[in-house]
What we know:
Number of strands: 10
Number of helices: 11
Strand content: 5-15%
Distance between the termini: 32 Å
CATH superfamily of the largest domain: Butyryl-CoA Dehydrogenase, subunit A, domain 3
Oligomer: single chain
Radius of gyration: 21 Å
Amino acid sequence: MNFDLSEEQVILRDALAGYLSHHWDQQRHNQGGVPARKALWDGIAGELGLMAIAVPERAGGSGGGLDDIMVVAQELGRCLALDGFIPTVAYGGNLFTATGDLARLETIASGAMVLALAHAETGLLPDGRAVATTVTDTGLTGVKVMVAGAQLASHVIVSAMEPGQTAYSLYLVPNDAPGIARQDFNMIDGQPSSELTLGGVAVGADMRIGAAGAGPDLHRRAADIATVAHSAEAVGMMETLIRTTVDYLQGRSQFGQKLAAFQVLQHRLADMVLHLEDARSMLFQTVLADQGDRDGFERAVTGMKVKVAEALRFVSQQAVQLHGGMGITDELMVGHFFKRAMTVNEAYGGPAAFRKRYEKSLG
């Protein structure tokens, strides 16, 4: 089986890498805040047209697949860049493709729509089919926590219960809609996030994504695609962590020789590479899985998520330890990768949630 990238994918990867090398660096990541992230989004959308990568051709996109999302997410992971790509292109793109919403797909392809998922609530389990947020004649009412990227988003995807339904529906709501109160903060990795209080936000039937009560099924499939993208991001992160750690050990000396010459440290580096390659193999297996086989694809995503999360945690921890105390400071990017690893591993449900999902699939 051929795992090599196509010529077009190599061009895509190199173009993105070249753009990031000129427009994204440690200072912008650490100190640029929301303005720097918005500028990067606008630049990549406008100059590279990256947001159209997985949008069907009939909606003005490139018609790419999950393997193309993997290529982009992996390159973004190498640089800790463009937080909004996965919730917008991977998650939102899948939702609108599944519901045949060509108009919204066109908006994603143009880069004009930036999405954030407002689904998490206090006490809500990852596979829960009901939420506390409700939609009635008076509008959307409820509180959504840990809405990553809400400060950058043009729209938020909100889960809410409709009268008479036993499962939630999904709504696409403008981020500046009257009735939304936003409390902004940064997550542990510096990613802008918010808590949204919805106080009678007016919604119409045209704002609902799919049918009433169809939210859990739509969310689960879109979240699986986003999980694959995050796993690709994790692989890119591990590549950078290993390369950075090797460079550090080759540049530091102790007892008259380079740290990289000590066999015990070479063994730890070898273990890091083994974890990376295991994760990469699980990623490839999932990307190549038949998405038409719903149960088989979900099992592939589940196994990948657990394995990649374990690998990312191990590699990021080893990188920090091998750098010593400086590894956790803001002066070195390895500490920022370590913090990002924590949020990536918990995105769309952590490893524990995916283990439970696999147990349920066994009956």
